[in-house]
């Protein structure tokens, strides 16, 4: 059984609009940075911006701090998959709720965020893989989840007529799809700003501290303070959690992607594979984005990922095995983004177990883009004390409290958002 956080219900139940109180400690609160905020969010990716947006919709004053620019890391460099297919069972309720929000982004953002409901398909290349798919679908159905559907070869061909003849079936989820990450992140940012959210880019959080009544966040330009603090800083979030005595075994990985030259349309759904690492989608302009959680390297202190071409070639071989007609298709560019991976492969979401009015959302293990809208909404509900049928207990930071595992992050003297 996962450790539950005894303070999980100790969240803010309401905010009173007030001027920022004077600060009597050793950190001066500069006029330029005086937040006037009820909540400070550290991290300007989709999770931070979604949380800020949903809080602002409830009338909460929010300031977002971003070390570089919004969407710079995991939220902006991922493959754009909007996927409930293949999720860890603990994530499924939240992922399904998030998918509902994706389909209704027009109501939330005033635009669709670039979302395309193309469906997602995980291919089985032999009978053993098809049996694995069948077991997965049966297990989910037994738990009451019916979004994943087993399909045969003929049904695969109806969806993707050009796929290689050795493919025997797969798992289909019709409500999944994809989006262009920077489009989506920008849409969340603009919607949040229209509701009064203040976004401070090039403002890394160096140190956090709790006073009797407020959180104080030290930056290079001064100190901000607010009643509630939310940490959504991706691969750098665990360092902030460690400052308040909540170490999390997180390690950064540089997930690699490539985008091809344009080719005539041949594949509408997003594709994955059962027995091989693959994430594959063709965008409307004809380019194909290819990934699959292949790991490059990370320069953590320099805050960027690096491509390992020999490893990336594995994805290219998988694609040409499935689509032989792409053998001569050129690659336009490649990149690696920094993602945060937890020791148990599911994220940290929810209230601190040690400190009041502190919340987390990080460690999505390369699959957090889809969950951004729903996680932001659910975390805002918890902060506001609003009820929800979706429990955050499986994601509590308290599950690591008994672990003696030390952080697997490179040492650094600065804490960044």
Which descriptors would you attach to this protein?
417 residues; FAD/NAD(P)-binding domain; 4-stranded mixed beta sheet; 10 helices; 21 strands; 23% strand; oxidoreductase; FAD-dep_OxRdtase; oxidoreductase activity; FAD-binding oxidoreductase; FAD/NAD-bd_sf
In terms of topology, how is this protein built?
Elements: E1 39-42, H1 46-57, E2 62-65, H2 74-77, E3 81-82, H3 92-103, H4 105-109, E4 120-124, H5 127-142, E5 149-152, H6 153-159, E6 169-173, E7 177-178, H7 181-194, E8 198-200, E9 207-210, E10 215-219, E11 222-226, E12 228-231, H8 237-243, E13 250-260, E14 270-273, E15 279-282, E16 288-291, E17 297-299, E18 304-306, H9 309-322, E19 331-342, E20 348-351, E21 358-362, H10 372-384
Parallel strand pairs: 1-2, 1-12, 2-8, 4-14, 12-21
Antiparallel strand pairs: 3-7, 4-6, 5-6, 9-10, 10-11, 13-16, 13-19, 15-16, 17-18, 20-21
In angstroms, what separates the terminal alpha carbons?
A: 32 Å
Strand order of the largest sheet: 8-2-1-12-21-20
Shape: globular
Structural class: alpha/beta
Helix content: 10-25%
Percent of residues in beta strands?
15-25%
CATH class category label of the domain at 34-116 and 177-249 and 344-399? Alpha Beta
The CATH H-level homologous superfamily of the domain at 34-116 and 177-249 and 344-399: FAD/NAD(P)-binding domain
Number of strands: 21
How many helical elements? Answer: 10
> What are the low-pLDDT stretches, counting only 5+ consecutive residues below 50?
6-33, 404-417
Biggest beta sheet summary: 6 strands, mixed
Level-2 CATH architecture of the domain at 34-116 and 177-249 and 344-399:
3-Layer(bba) Sandwich
Remind me, CATH topology of the domain at 34-116 and 177-249 and 344-399? FAD/NAD(P)-binding domain
Q: Mind telling me the C-alpha Rg?
A: 22 Å
Mean model confidence by pLDDT: 87
